[in-house]
Structures are given as C-alpha cells and as structure tokens.
C-alpha cells in the first residue's frame, strides 16, 4: 500500500532476499486486472533490481544486506580526505587494443579507485549501460558515473539518463565529488526511446550536472559523440575539468557516420562493392580535418590530454583544487 513510498523517499534502498515492495498486492491486482502474479514477481528483487529501478542494491542474504548498508553509511557519513599524490597504474591496459571492441568498464573503475577499499555499485542490473558507483579515491569518497560499452555499446537512453541523474543529485546533496568516465557513441536511437520520453528523462541528467556544485571531473577514454557527450558532464555544463586520453575522439558524430551525411551524393554513385573502401578513405580524411582531441582542446571542450599512466594523480589534484561545496537541495527520487 501507501507504505511502499516510505523506502522510495529514502536516499538508498537495500532489498534483502525476502523483501517485497508494491503499492497493490497480488490479490488486488488479480481482482482488478485479472492478472495472476505472486509477491516475488510483483515486487521482489528481480523486478525492482532489474526492471523498475526502485531498489539500489539487491542482497542475496540478510547478512549481505547489512554489510551493504554499513558500507554505504560509511562512504556517505565518513567521507575522509583525499591525498594529493596517488600511486599510478597503467590504466590503458584495462581497455582492449582495438577502439572498436566493446568492453566492461568495471575493471577500469576498479583500477582508478583505491585498491582493496570500500566500493558499492548502485543499480547494477537496472540500465547497465551506465555504471553508478560509490568508492574511495585517494582515501576520500567519490561518486563514479561511467558509460559501459559492454551494454548497448555504452549509448545513453532514457533509463540510464534517469539513473545517472538520480545518482548525481544524491552525490551533490551529500557533498560527494564526482568522476565521470566517458566513452559514449551517442543516444540510443529508435521510436521506442522517443515514446519512452528520452527528451524529458534525458534532460534530468543535464539538469543534475549543471546544477551540481561538488567538484566534478570528466575523463574521456575513447570517444564522446553528439548530445550524449554534452550530457556526460561536459565543459558546457560547468565541469570542473575535462581530461582526455591520447587518441580520444570528441565530435558531433563518428567519422564514418559524418561522411555518410556529408558525402551522401558521392557515395550514392559508387558501386556497392567499392562503397565500404570509399567510406573508409573519406572517413580518414575527415578525421584529419576535424583534428581529434587536439582540436577539442583548441575550441575549449577539453582542458588537457592525460597519459593513462599518470591519470589518477591528475584526477585527484583537479578535485582537490576545486571548492569543496555541497548542494543545498534535497534528494528527490527522480
């Protein structure tokens, strides 16, 4: 019943294996709609952890639930202070050699955060194309928002934008600095996305970042295209600092997609068996003209190119040099 809104108004919901949350129970559902459903399928860990996004953490046992609560309370309540100099690792080794290969971003997040420290991912199964994690970085609590190319290629969609927006608002309300790891090809296209309110729900992420006053640093690892780049804590949204690794691409769209628009008449006249080769040739020329990350620095959308071997200290210094503010707002359940 209405008591279900109690947990929904809290900052973080941890659901144990026998936990159930629903506004109307199975009997009411059956009498009104004729649907037969049990309590677990209606409001248990699977629907709320994977489908609805109501629950932040699903625990397999009660003891695990208590441990998650302790970790979250410690990360938010005892945030600590950040060291100015951090031990470095070669983070490039955590990405595949080919820039076209998908990969799981979790090892990269673990490599950036302190080794063997407290970490708690929120909403791991809901909208997994973006990862939202609380962890320790240089001894201090930070919030990490990262595109995950392993799921939907890392595209933003309506659910992932809403998930990230809620996380950004929570971190801002608790004074937790943000690290945004960007590898995004754009927004997920499709009729379903438009009907699902990607404009309205995607705007939540832009609003959350633009209003956040905590230090928020962006790292572009491989690519940042189009409107999705803007939404991922870009310079235009007031990012504290935007770093990029060598070879990162910042553009309205990828080179191949761009030349298909710019040179569509030329490509239309090319025989089918030669079109792919011509596209690659035109794309290579386009990449030279667009200028890559050097051009991004020139026009002010990227502040500095970082080598993966010195990234951790540079990120820490950028956070330390920014004012340690805290958002003067509540934590609305977006």
Explain what you see.
The strands form 2 sheets. Strands 3, 4, 5, 6, 7, 8, 9 and 10 form an 8-stranded mixed sheet that branches. A two-stranded parallel ribbon has the order 1-2. With about 325 residues, it is of the alpha/beta class. The protein has 2 domains: about 80 residues, 2-enoyl-CoA Hydratase, Chain A, domain 1, CATH 3.90.226.10; about 190 residues, Alpha-Beta Complex (2-enoyl-CoA Hydratase, Chain A, domain 1), CATH 3.90.226. It contains 15 helices and 10 strands. It is globular and about 65 Å long. Strand 3 and strand 4 form a beta hairpin. The two termini are about 20 Å apart. Helix 7 runs parallel beside helix 9 and helix 11 crosses helix 13.
Keywords:
two-stranded parallel ribbon; 334 residues; single chain; alpha/beta; 2-enoyl-CoA Hydratase, Chain A, domain 1; 2 domains; 15 helices; 10 strands; eight-stranded mixed β-sheet
Q: By helix and strand content, what is the structural category? A: alpha/beta
Helix % is: 40-55%
Distance N terminus to C terminus? 20 Å
So, CATH architecture of the largest domain? Alpha-Beta Complex
Classified in CATH, the superfamily of the largest domain is 2-enoyl-CoA Hydratase, Chain A, domain 1
CATH topology of the largest domain: 2-enoyl-CoA Hydratase, Chain A, domain 1
Strand content: 5-15%
- Give the tally of β-strands: 10
Which blocks of ≥5 consecutive residues have pLDDT under 50? none
**Alpha carbon gyration radius:** 22 Å
Please describe the biggest sheet, giving its number of strands, its sense, and whether it closes into a barrel: 8 strands, mixed
H/E series, N to C?
Answer: HEHHHEHHEEEHEHHEHEEHHHHEH
Overall mean pLDDT: 92
- Tally of individual helices: 15
């Amino acid at each position: 019943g209405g008591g279900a809104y109690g947990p929904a108004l809290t900052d973080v919901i941890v659901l144990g294996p026998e936990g159930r949350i629903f506004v109307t129970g199975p009997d009411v559902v059956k009498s009104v709609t004729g649907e037969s459903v049990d309590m677990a399928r209606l409001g248990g860990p699977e629907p709320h952890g994977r489908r609805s996004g109501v629950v932040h953490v699903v625990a397999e046992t009660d003891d695990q639930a208590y441990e998650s609560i302790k970790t979250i309370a410690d990360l938010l309540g005892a945030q600590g202070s950040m060291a100015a100099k951090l031990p470095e690792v070669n983070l490039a080794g955590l990405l595949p050699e080919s820039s076209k290969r998908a990969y799981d971003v979790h090892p990269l997040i673990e490599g950036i955060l302190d080794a063997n420290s407290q970490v708690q991912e929120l909403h791991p199964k809901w909208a997994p194309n973006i990862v939202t994690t609380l962890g320790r970085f240089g001894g201090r609590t930070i919030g990490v928002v990262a595109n995950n190319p392993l799921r939907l290629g890392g595209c933003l969609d309506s659910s992932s934008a809403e998930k990230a927006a809620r996380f950004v608002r929570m971190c801002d309300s608790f004074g937790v600095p943000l690290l945004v790891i960007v590898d995004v090809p754009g927004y997920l296209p499709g009729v379903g996305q438009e009907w699902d309110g990607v404009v309205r729900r995607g705007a939540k992420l832009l609003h959350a970042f633009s209003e956040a006053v905590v230090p928020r640093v962006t790292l572009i690892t491989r690519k940042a295209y189009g409107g999705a780049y803007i939404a991922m804590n870009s310079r235009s949204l007031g990012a504290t600092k935007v770093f990029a690794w060598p070879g990162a691409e910042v553009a309205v769209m990828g080179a191949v997609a761009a030349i298909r628009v710019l040179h569509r008449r030329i490509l239309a006249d090319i025989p089918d068996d030669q079109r792919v080769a011509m596209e690659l040739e035109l794309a290579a020329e386009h990449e030279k003209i667009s200028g890559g990350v050097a051009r991004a620095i020139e026009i002010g959308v990227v502040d500095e190119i970082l080598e993966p071997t010195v990234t951790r200290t540079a990120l820490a210094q950028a956070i330390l040099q920014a004012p340690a503010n805290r958002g003067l707002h509540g934590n609305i359940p977006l």
